[in-house]
Design brief:
Oligomer: single chain
Number of helices: 3
Helix content: 25-40%
Order of helices and strands: EEEHEEHH
CATH topology of the largest domain: GMP Synthetase, Chain A, domain 3
CATH architecture of the largest domain: 2-Layer Sandwich
Shape: elongated
Distance between the termini: 17 Å
Radius of gyration: 17 Å
Structural class: alpha+beta
Largest sheet: 3 strands, antiparallel
Strand content: 35-45%
CATH superfamily of the largest domain: K homology (KH) domain
Number of domains: 2
Strand order of the largest sheet: 1-2-3
CATH class of the largest domain: Alpha Beta
Length: 131
């Protein structure tokens, strides 16, 4: 469960069951404090974190040694709806001792089988609201 509490302006603090916190905010011109991750950008954080954990975990299980790993994500906003991504770009930077085919396979497995963020992007869940 995630609990989001309004701080000030339009800034929220999100806390999960373990007590981990994240600040979600927007630009001051829209009423935020400009001190946290934008909600639309948090989608990229979720996708990158999920895929990164999958890829690194799979490579390590196959005996690979990772010296440096980064995922750089960017999104092209839709012209008709600036709060929606029309396209997401993912660049994986991986240095170490591993087989290139294992890296490609780990990305495929993350995308097609393991990454819940990617699966949710493809198949949006039904959302029930209560007030």
């Amino acid at each position: 469960m995630i609990r989001m509490t309004l701080n000030k302006g339009l800034q929220f603090t999100a806390v999960d069951d373990t007590g981990h916190r994240v600040v979600v905010d927007t630009d001051t011109e829209y009423g935020g404090l400009d001190q946290g991750i934008r909600p639309i950008e948090f989608l990229l954080v979720s996708l990158g974190g999920c895929m990164g954990m999958d890829i690194v975990g799979i490579l390590q299980k196959k005996g690979g040694k990772i010296n440096r790993f980064e995922i750089v994500l960017d999104g092209k906003r839709a012209a008709d709806h600036p709060r929606r991504y029309e396209k997401i770009f993912v660049k994986i930077i991986c240095e170490g001792d591993y087989r290139q085919e294992d890296l490609a396979r780990s990305l495929e497995l993350s995308r097609d089988k393991y990454c819940g963020a990617f699966a949710t992007l493809q198949n949006p869940p039904e959302i029930e609201f209560s007030l």
